[in-house]
């Protein structure tokens, strides 16, 4: 059976404050999205990559990966979950029973991390890459005064890729959107329906490029991966 990768890349990346969506900012010889796609397309277990783009995206066709035979594009939606659902509509669950959702903004993904999350997902009913917290966590209602310190022992940061059965993810995301639930990753939609999702400790360099300072950091992390 086949594994399809879904890449939501329809966001505008407001926090980056750049003149184009962050996924198109230069990173290596590729832009951020190009590097992410190159890595997913090169993985032998991934048979197809479906990318969700903004409706009138003028940048995508310039990517070196744009006409790759394993690549398809769809038009994304208002929220990340809408964009992932748009990708899912292009996947036949009978042919590809598992999907791997990966942020466009995480170009440092490695084959080893992909293999680990897919293996854990297939051993159960779904899995995500995640990282234990290293900072002490404060809770504040108003963003000024600390109400309390939240024990970090059981807290994890959700990364991507996240790997789930195709049909179940489609159902979970549709229900979450219909009920107006706030969904910032795929696992949260599965959790709402009581599906067990396995945590897989990911690499520390699998950062999500969000702010301007993340670009030089990502380039340095890339140079460390190569050496
Ligand atoms: O904003 P954030 O960094 O959490 O976005 C994560 C990913 O979801 C990005 O790759 C972004 O392009 C994508 N996204 C999308 N459609 C939206 C909003 C975000 O595909 N409507």
Provide mean pLDDT, rounded. 95
- Count of DSSP helices? 6
The CATH topology annotation reads as Spore Coat Polysaccharide Biosynthesis Protein SpsA, Chain A
Kindly report the oligomeric state of this protein.
single chain
| Count of strand segments | 9
Distance between the termini: 35 Å
Q: Pairing-aware structural class of the strands and helices?
A: alpha/beta
Give the class-level CATH name. Alpha Beta
Protein name: 2-C-methyl-D-erythritol 4-phosphate cytidylyltransferase
Keywords: Isoprene biosynthesis, Nucleotidyltransferase, Transferase
Function: Catalyzes the formation of 4-diphosphocytidyl-2-C-methyl-D-erythritol from CTP and 2-C-methyl-D-erythritol 4-phosphate (MEP).
Catalytic activity: 2-C-methyl-D-erythritol 4-phosphate + CTP + H(+) = 4-CDP-2-C-methyl-D-erythritol + diphosphate
Describe this structure in words.
With 227 residues, this protein is an alpha/beta fold. It has a single domain (3-226), classed as Spore Coat Polysaccharide Biosynthesis Protein SpsA, Chain A (Alpha-Beta Complex). Helices cover 29% and strands 22% of the residues. It contains six helices and nine strands; from the N terminus they run βαββαβαββββααβα. It has helices at residues 32-42, 80-88, 111-123, 166-178, 186-192, 214-226; strands at 3-9, 46-53, 71-75, 98-101, 127-132, 137-139, 148-150, 156-165, 198-201. Bound molecules: cytidine-5'-monophosphate. Cytidine-5'-monophosphate (C5P) binds at residues 8-11, 23, 52, 76-80, 83, 103-105, 208, 210.
List keywords for this structure.
227 residues, alpha/beta, Spore Coat Polysaccharide Biosynthesis Protein SpsA, Chain A, two-stranded antiparallel ribbon, 9 strands, binds cytidine-5'-monophosphate, IspD/TarI_cytidylyltransf_bact, transferase
């Amino acid at each position: 059976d086949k594994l399809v990768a879904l890449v939501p890349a329809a966001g505008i990346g407001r926090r980056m404050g750049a003149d184009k969506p962050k996924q198109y900012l230069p990173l290596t010889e590729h832009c951020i999205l190009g590097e992410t796609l190159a890595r997913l397309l090169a993985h032998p277990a991934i048979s197809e990559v479906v990318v969700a783009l903004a409706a009138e995206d003028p940048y995508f066709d310039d990517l070196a990966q744009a006409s790759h035979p394993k690549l398809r594009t769809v038009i994304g939606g208002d929220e990340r979950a809408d964009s992932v659902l748009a990708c899912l509509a292009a996947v036949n669950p009978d042919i590809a029973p598992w999907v791997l959702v990966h942020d466009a903004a995480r170009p440092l993904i490695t084959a080893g991390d992909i293999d680990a999350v897919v293996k854990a997902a297939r051993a159960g009913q779904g899995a995500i890459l995640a990282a234990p917290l290293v900072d002490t966590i404060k809770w504040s209602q108003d963003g000024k005064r600390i109400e309390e310190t939240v024990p970090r022992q059981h807290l994890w940061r959700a990364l991507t890729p996240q790997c789930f059965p195709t049909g179940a993810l489609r159902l979970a995301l549709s229900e979450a959107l219909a009920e107006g639930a706030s969904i910032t990753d795929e696992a949260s939609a599965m959790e709402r329906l009581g599906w067990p999702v396995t945590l897989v400790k990911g690499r520390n360099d699998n950062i999500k490029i969000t702010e301007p300072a993340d670009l030089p950091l990502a380039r340095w992390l890339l140079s460390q991966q190569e050496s």
